[in-house]
Design a protein that fits this description.
The complex is a heterodimer of chains A (215) and B (275).
Chain A lengths: L2 H19 L6 H7 L4 H15 L14 H20 L7 H7 L4 H8 L3 H8 L10 H11 L3 H8 L1 H11 L3 H13 L3 H7 L5 H13 L3
Helix pairs in contact in A: 1-3, 2-3, 6-7, 8-9
Chain B lengths: L1 H27 L7 H7 L10 H13 L3 H27 L6 H24 L10 H20 L4 E2 L5 E2 L4 H8 L2 E2 L5 E2 L6 H8 L6 H7 L2 H12 L4 H8 L3 H27 L1
Antiparallel strand pairs in B: 1-2, 3-4
The chains are: A mainly alpha (215), B mainly alpha (275).
């Protein structure tokens, strides 16, 4: 289960738990009927919750100092995290965070670069095939967010994609997996065409940019 | 039933929207990041006046984007302080079912707690995990589940191990009683489940209803929903089949498979006891 699917399951099970805590005696069957595709994951969490979480105490009135046990666990955890982060070439920064830093809402950012908010969301979530995103999008984002172009490309996964493609040319099996996942991603052009929020003028402008960039 | 559930969903959606607005309002009114006023509010010691944990998550992420490692660590420490009572209780509680010496228990609790902290930090650093900014406690519970399951698998601790090396499983009586009953099938035929192993049946007798969730966690994933629906919610096989969109026969097969898994647990118990 990937991160996005897990977040869906979290939202579903949060409702179950909210019902349970409100004393409503929710029936798991209702949730499984509604979300059969997540049945196993929902049951897994609910069984775990009943086995391990129901009696756990809540926060006290005042925040206690860090206990010895917590301090030790935290030190170990940070060591492991920093070790793994140093080995991974991952970007922690998202468009939303960059927009936050500029005190801009996501909607404001979308308007500023001539896209709709749903397209911006898709870019943020990396569900648009990175090979089909025009350079112009990155340039506009860089200007609006006052970031270097490379930071925007990294954030959108474009730099990562380029690097991976070069490296994967040596590894056919992995390359195939990558190709499969890209097959499921939507192209930028399709996203623009299907958008209900972009005006015809905006769509025409993006079509021209895409053609100009050979996309 | 469908209508009632839709109503629950609508209520939940309304509640979520309200919550989002509240959190957004709180976040928008925060003083400038890094100012003395900012830290004063962030580190408010009174829980009733303290910022929601969801806001601390956003502040933690803001610290990362600003490259403020000191601020990032400060906020994580605060989050751990705010949750340490429940986390420490949890770490002891979930390992309570394992028979261990005090020293070994302390070491394992310590390991498990460190695993959890690591998972939490990773999750907080992953800015795409937006639900942490909406429902911190639920996300924390999810992380505890992952930490617990990974830990138990890694340590090979899924069974209750006793000091003399024996392994015992306590299976809910209601499960055993039900498995022993013949069940009416869609074709009208009554068929019972066979419990061939008398020792397994004996072991199945020392059970409590409250053990069922833990037992279910140890079954293969595809068997869990069936067992939950029939033995926890008291649904019929037909209901369970309808809910899961599978045939009565598949339900029955999964029940048999679950029983086989239980037998395997008992076999491993014997191996450990006498082997």
């Amino acid at each position: 289960m990937d991160r996005e699917q897990e977040e869906v399951v979290q939202r579903i099970t949060a409702r179950y738990i909210a019902e349970l805590r409100a004393g409503n005696q929710p029936r798991l069957g209702d949730y499984l009927s509604r979300y059969p595709q997540y049945a196993d994951a929902i049951t897994d969490f609910v069984a775990y919750y009943h086995a391990a979480e129901v009696d756990i105490p809540e926060e006290k009135d005042s925040i206690p100092p860090l206990s010895q046990a917590s301090r030790e666990a935290l030190v170990i955890a940070w060591k492991r995290v920093l070790h793994s982060e140093s080995g991974a070439n991952t970007s922690l920064v998202t468009l939303r965070v960059m927009a936050d830093n500029q005190r801009k809402s996501f909607l404001q950012l979308a308007l500023e670069i001539g896209l709709s908010i749903e397209i911006l969301e898709k870019l943020e979530r990396h569900i648009i095939d990175t090979a089909t995103i025009p350079k112009e999008v990155c340039k506009r984002l860089a200007a609006a967010l006052q970031q270097p172009l490379s930071a925007i490309e990294r954030c959108l996964g474009i730099a990562e994609h380029t690097q991976r493609t070069q490296h994967l040319a040596e590894e056919q099996a992995t390359y195939r997996m990558e190709a499969q996942s890209n097959d499921q991603a939507q192209s930028f052009r399709e996203t623009v065409e299907q958008s209900m929020r972009l005006s015809n003028e905006q769509k025409d402008a993006w079509r021209a940019i895409l053609t100009e960039e050979g996309l | 039933m469908e209508q009632k559930f839709s109503q629950i969903e609508e209520d939940a959606d309304r509640g979520l929207i309200r919550r989002r607005i509240e959190l957004a309002n709180v976040y928008q009114t925060l003083p400038e990041y890094g100012s003395m006023e900012f830290w004063k509010i962030i580190e408010e010691p009174d829980i009733k006046a303290a910022l929601p944990l969801e806001i601390l998550v956003r502040c933690f992420r803001l610290a990362i984007t600003k490259g403020d490692d000191v601020g990032r660590n400060r906020i994580v420490e605060l989050i751990i302080r705010r949750t340490q009572v429940s986390n420490e209780y949890w770490a002891y509680h979930v390992l309570n079912s394992i028979h261990l010496g005090p020293d070994e228990r302390n070491i394992l609790v310590h390991d498990l707690y460190a695993d959890l902290c690591e998972r939490v930090i990773h999750a907080l650093m992953d800015m795409k995990r937006l639900f942490w900014e909406e429902n911190f406690q639920h996300c924390l519970q999810f992380e505890r589940k992952h930490a617990y399951q990974a830990f138990m698998t890694r340590e090979g601790r899924w069974y209750h191990q006793q000091g003399d090396g024996t392994v015992t499983r306590r299976i809910p009586r209601v499960l055993i009683d039900s498995l022993d009953q013949p069940v009416m099938h869609s074709d009208g035929e009554l068929r019972g489940l066979e419990i061939e192993d008398e020792r397994a049946q004996q072991a199945l007798l020392s059970v409590e209803q409250g053990d069922l969730p833990l037992l279910i966690l140890q079954l293969p994933e595809k068997l869990r929903s069936v067992i939950w629906l029939i033995f926890w919610e008291g649904r019929t096989e037909k209901d369970a089949a309808q809910i899961l969109g599978i045939s009565d026969r598949t339900i029955r097969n999964r029940l048999r498979e679950a029983l086989k898994s239980l037998r395997d647990l008992f076999d491993s118990q014997e191996g450990t006891t006498y082997g």
